């Protein structure tokens, strides 16, 4: 009976999928399906098996067969009250195993109607329905078993369809918007009708999250879905945890890009390095862990190695996606909530990650969207962390490094926020009195790392901000009232321990603006680069970490650049004596590129043309790199060729970077890792 009903129905719909289904025929089909479902309880599975076989044999793309599937799904939607998870598991696996990426929108409509009705008819089906929807965040052509439909798995197990599967990628991605609209609409509808659905959705999303080494397109598409959930009504319940998971994923990829890989001796190569896969064994043992399917992805390339360009390009794409999401959140008036989430993520993940290079710029950009509130609050929070004695010393030193780099680089930050943070640091330094210090014994810098990190933070910020603060009458009074000289005279001798390039530039600027007499410090300038400075912290010296050093990702840079202060943009006071010395050097060696020459050039340049990376030429990029990366940077020096200003797509590097980038001397030089 079932087959006759299906064929009769096809005659009415095969001429066009948009023709309304005959209600009488649908009623007959519903009665037949109900009979097939109830007969199973009595031990008769003939009709039930026929129904499963009919659905399983549907050929995607065949209009006649898809018309049959539409009628079957709509009839099933009206018979969900007869479905029992224990007795009808095979049917559920068959229907929930379908992928809407493979079928027309008419099938998608009917399938989503069934999913919604099933989930709302019985709470026991909610998890399976949500899992099916999340599986459809990615198309089967991604090659990940966790996101394949039952038909694709059957073809692959039969030794067919692997090549065809990957060929469908473009076609699948071309339908991305219409497919995901259906998926997310169904999720929202279920969440509206089932109060607990949102909370049950979150672990499913995290469990099906692809591994970090999976291709950038699939990582980006899945993250796009996560951010879409975050910004939806469901996001009001689980949005913060979803956004934090996004940050965690960015951190995982961020740490794969290391300076020693970037600074390869031969820039013309394709840079290959071994990805760290310590957690792969754990993933195999724990199928519920995010990315557990990585090792069985269908791909011809090695899952254990990726080029640096591929990893950088992936990071760039994901950062651009997330930064754009933050922009949309601000436009929707959700900035305060998102700020609170990112602050929690910053303290729990970002700040504790050793020298992340890019992820922290989410905070940097977010604060630029509300400088007077979010921007100032972030600086205040960093001060709170630093001055909190209950925090670990390493955490406090990291907070000082973040604070210094943030105050120096955030172009948008109000001067009052800069001066207020400096005041708190200076007051703390002045009150620091190490009781364990014996004046007769040599200083052990390792015992006072928190103090030295604060001193260095103050000097570092003033290297960038001193002139602008002194040019503002109100801020000038505040800076002049700071007991900076007393700190320099502290018995722990911060000038002997802090980064020499920062100390030297700080003293030079203080002298230029006549803030206080620095002759007693500059006359004994051999204190710079002392054994104490070299020994402090071993390989983890204070000069190793300025978190907001220039951003090196090309596409996502457009979000950061307008709000970022490059060292070349800083208006720096020049002492008259130094200017005369520079002019003498010019007469003796006009070809020499000195710091003062660079300073004079940068102060007369129109910086507006460099605010947008995409409008700048390669030469301007090189100039940005010379000025920004060769001074006050954690980025290591190159010894054989210049490090590129941006990590480029596909290759990651620009092999044509001229040698003059590294030849240019700088008073504030980069440090070495």
TrEMBL record:
<dbReference type="GO" id="GO:0001042">
    <property type="term" value="F:RNA polymerase I core binding"/>
</dbReference>
<dbReference type="GO" id="GO:0001181">
    <property type="term" value="F:RNA polymerase I general transcription initiation factor activity"/>
</dbReference>
<comment type="similarity">
    <text>Belongs to the RRN3 family.</text>
</comment>
<protein>
    <submittedName>
        <fullName>TSA: Wollemia nobilis Ref_Wollemi_Transcript_4138_2773 transcribed RNA sequence</fullName>
    </submittedName>
</protein>
<dbReference type="GO" id="GO:0006361">
    <property type="term" value="P:transcription initiation at RNA polymerase I promoter"/>
</dbReference>
<dbReference type="GO" id="GO:0005634">
    <property type="term" value="C:nucleus"/>
</dbReference>
<dbReference type="InterPro" id="IPR007991">
    <property type="entry name" value="RNA_pol_I_trans_ini_fac_RRN3"/>
</dbReference>
<dbReference type="Pfam" id="PF05327">
    <property type="entry name" value="RRN3"/>
</dbReference>
<feature type="region of interest" description="Disordered">
    <location>
        <begin position="279"/>
        <end position="302"/>
    </location>
</feature>
């Amino acid at each position: 009976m079932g087959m006759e009903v299906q064929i009769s129905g096809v005659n009415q719909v095969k001429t066009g999928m948009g023709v309304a289904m005959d209600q009488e025929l649908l009623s007959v089909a519903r009665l037949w399906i109900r009979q097939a479902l109830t007969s199973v309880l009595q031990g008769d599975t003939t009709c039930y098996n026929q129904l499963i076989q009919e659905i399983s044999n549907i050929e995607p793309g065949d209009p006649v067969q898809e018309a049959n599937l539409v009628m079957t799904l709509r009839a099933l939607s009206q018979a969900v009250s007869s479905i029992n998870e224990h007795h009808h598991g095979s049917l559920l696996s068959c229907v929930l195993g379908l992928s809407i990426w493979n079928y027309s929108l008419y099938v998608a409509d009917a399938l989503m109607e069934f999913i919604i009705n099933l989930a709302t008819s019985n709470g026991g089906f909610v998890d399976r329905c949500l899992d099916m929807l999340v599986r459809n965040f990615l198309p089967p052509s991604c090659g990940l078993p966790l996101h394949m439909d039952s038909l694709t798995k059957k073809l692959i197990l039969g030794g067919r369809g692997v090549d065809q599967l990957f060929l469908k990628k473009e076609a699948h991605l071309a339908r991305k918007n219409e497919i995901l609209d259906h998926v997310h609409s169904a999720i929202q509808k279920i969440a509206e009708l089932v109060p607990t659905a949102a909370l049950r959705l979150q672990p499913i999303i995290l469990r099906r999250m692809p591994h970090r080494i999976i291709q950038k397109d699939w990582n980006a598409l899945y993250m796009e879905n996560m951010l879409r959930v975050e910004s939806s009504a469901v996001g009001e319940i689980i949005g913060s945890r979803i956004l934090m998971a996004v940050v965690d994923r960015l951190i995982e990829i961020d740490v794969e890009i290391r300076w020693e890989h970037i600074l390869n001796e031969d820039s013309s190569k394709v840079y290959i390095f071994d990805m760290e896969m310590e957690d792969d064994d754990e993933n195999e043992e724990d199928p519920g862990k995010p990315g557990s399917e990585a090792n069985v992805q269908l791909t011809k390339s090695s899952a254990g190695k990726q080029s640096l360009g591929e990893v950088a390009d992936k990071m760039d794409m994901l950062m651009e996606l997330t930064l754009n999401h933050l922009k949309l959140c601000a436009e929707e008036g959700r900035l305060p909530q998102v700020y609170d989430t990112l602050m929690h993520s910053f303290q729990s993940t970002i700040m504790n990650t050793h020298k992340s290079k890019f992820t922290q710029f989410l905070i940097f950009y977010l604060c630029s969207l509300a400088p007077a509130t979010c921007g100032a609050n972030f600086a205040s929070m960093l001060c709170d962390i630093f001055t909190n004695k209950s925090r670990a010393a390493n955490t406090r030193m990291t907070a000082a490094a973040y604070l210094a780099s943030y105050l120096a680089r955030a172009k948008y930050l109000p001067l009052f926020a800069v001066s207020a943070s400096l005041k708190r640091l200076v007051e703390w330094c002045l009150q620091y009195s190490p009781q364990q210090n014996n004046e007769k014994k040599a200083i052990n810098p390792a015992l006072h790392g928190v103090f030295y990190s604060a001193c260095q933070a103050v000097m570092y910020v003033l290297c960038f901000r001193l002139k602008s603060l002194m040019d503002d009458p109100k801020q000038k009074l505040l800076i002049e009232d700071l007991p900076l000289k007393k700190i320099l005279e502290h018995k722990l001798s911060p000038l002997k321990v802090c980064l020499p390039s920062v100390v030297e530039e700080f003293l030079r600027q203080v002298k230029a603006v006549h803030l206080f007499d620095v002759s007693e410090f500059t006359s004994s300038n051999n204190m710079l680069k002392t054994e104490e400075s070299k020994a402090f912290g071993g390989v983890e010296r204070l000069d190793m970490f300025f978190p907001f050093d220039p951003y090196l990702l090309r596409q996502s840079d457009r979000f950061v650049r307008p709000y970022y202060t490059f060292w070349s943009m800083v208006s720096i006071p020049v002492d008259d004596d130094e200017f005369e010395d520079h002019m003498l050097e010019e007469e003796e060696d006009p070809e020499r590129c000195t710091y003062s020459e660079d300073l004079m050039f940068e102060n007369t340049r129109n910086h507006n043309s460099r605010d947008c990376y995409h409008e700048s030429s390669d030469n301007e990029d090189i100039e940005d790199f010379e000025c920004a990366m060769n001074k006050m940077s954690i980025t290591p020096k190159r010894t054989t060729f210049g490090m590129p200003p941006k990590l480029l797509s596909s290759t990651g590097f620009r092999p044509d970077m001229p040698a003059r980038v590294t030849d240019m001397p700088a008073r504030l030089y980069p440090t070495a890792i």
